[in-house]
Structure to design on (402 residues):
């Protein structure tokens, strides 16, 4: 705050702190406008996608709203932290965050003293992270933001009820699932068993019919003789083209020990990477492998959006304790990301490969100066791009030699 106060005219540290912590402005209309602007800038009903993900923020003490010992993805372990759930929008390599929710653990939600101390509104109840994610998805659809599919990582993808809710809402998802997820390759028969003996109630619970095969773990299907792999181009990286071997097959996931709705299982092995990824998608049965490939790799840009938020707009750099202050800080982070993306698109009209990092570095050069010309900005971009293209050509030459 001190640094901002030094550079923003007619303000001081106390005024800026009040703007974030105590000022009663509502962040929801700001999110509405952010989503409208994102729709105008990169919205696309055929190629745009939205993604749910979370991020943890390490904290000391127990007084910050929602803080407790819980898993923190940034640290890769359980620690004292707050957790935010975020919704991102991506179209190609364009990406930004468009909504946010603070995860309020159940013990916090049921503690009236701490709720009052941190200003948690009366209508806020306990919701799981997946419920918060679904809430943002449906809110975004209600606002008319165009998107073709929804992406999510294993934490969300392994929850059948969430996939079912999205499917029942007539939306398309692609969800990472763990390697031990079980499926049937063919639809098994199910039945309500016949009653054995004269006593007791008649059976009412449907079960797998006798003699039907057991489901298999998806990792056991990698070398199945009936599975064919296709080499598919996914996207350009900073150093090379990313190609992958994809196997796409129709399966029946296990849900409550019974076969669920037929869905796509995508088995993906990126070239140069030893890891195998597994994903479910409810895309239509006639979806092409190339389309599934583009959907499969789109979550990468959500991860980049979170990196942008932490590295370029200081998402994790805050010292607030209350509910209102946390949401004010996060929505200002989203607004800053939107501003950077707008500049990236504008600068990209003359320098097409302008990156988010380019924009950040340009702002660091021009913000302290009272005047700067377009020619100076363009010169900075072109100098960076010349070095980047040279490095890319060098990598391509080495890859061809190999």
């Amino acid at each position: 705050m001190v640094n901002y106060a030094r550079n923003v005219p007619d303000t001081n540290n106390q005024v800026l702190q009040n703007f974030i912590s105590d000022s009663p402005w509502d962040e929801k209309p700001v999110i509405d406008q952010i989503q409208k602007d994102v729709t105008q800038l990169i919205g696309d009903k055929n190629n745009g996608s939205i993604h749910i993900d979370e991020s943890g923020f390490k904290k000391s003490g127990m007084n910050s709203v929602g803080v407790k010992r819980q898993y923190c993805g940034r640290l890769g372990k359980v620690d004292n932290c707050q957790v935010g759930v975020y919704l991102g929008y991506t179209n190609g390599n364009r990406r930004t965050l468009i909504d946010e929710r603070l995860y309020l653990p159940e013990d916090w939600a049921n503690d009236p003293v701490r709720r009052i101390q941190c200003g948690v509104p009366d209508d806020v109840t306990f919701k799981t992270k997946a419920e918060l994610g679904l809430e943002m998805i449906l809110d975004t659809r209600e606002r008319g933001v165009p998107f073709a599919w929804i992406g999510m990582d294993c934490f969300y993808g392994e929850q059948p009820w969430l996939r079912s809710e999205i499917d029942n809402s007539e939306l398309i998802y692609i969800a990472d699932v763990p390697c031990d997820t079980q499926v049937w390759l063919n639809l098994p028969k199910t039945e309500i068993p016949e009653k054995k003996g004269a006593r007791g109630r008649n059976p009412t619970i449907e079960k797998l019919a006798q003699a039907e095969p057991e489901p298999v773990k998806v990792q056991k299907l990698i070398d199945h003789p009936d599975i064919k792999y296709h080499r598919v181009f996914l996207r350009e990286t900073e150093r090379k083209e990313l190609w992958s071997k994809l196997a796409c097959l129709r399966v029946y996931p296990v849900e409550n020990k019974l076969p669920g709705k037929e869905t796509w299982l995508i088995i993906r092995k990126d070239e140069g990477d030893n890891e195998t990824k597994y994903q479910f998608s409810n895309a239509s049965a006639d979806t092409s492998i190339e389309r599934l490939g583009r959907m499969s790799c789109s979550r990468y840009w959500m991860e980049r959006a979170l990196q942008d938020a932490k590295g370029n707009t200081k998402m994790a750099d805050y010292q607030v304790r209350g509910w209102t202050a946390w949401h004010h800080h996060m929505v200002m982070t989203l607004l800053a990301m939107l501003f950077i993306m707008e500049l990236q698109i504008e600068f990209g009209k003359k320098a097409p490969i302008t990156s988010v990092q380019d924009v950040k570095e340009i702002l660091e050069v021009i913000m302290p100066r009272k005047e700067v010309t377009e020619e100076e900005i363009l010169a900075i971009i072109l100098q960076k791009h010349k070095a980047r293209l040279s490095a890319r050509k060098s990598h391509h030459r080495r890859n061809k030699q190999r």
Notes: The radius of gyration is 25 Å.
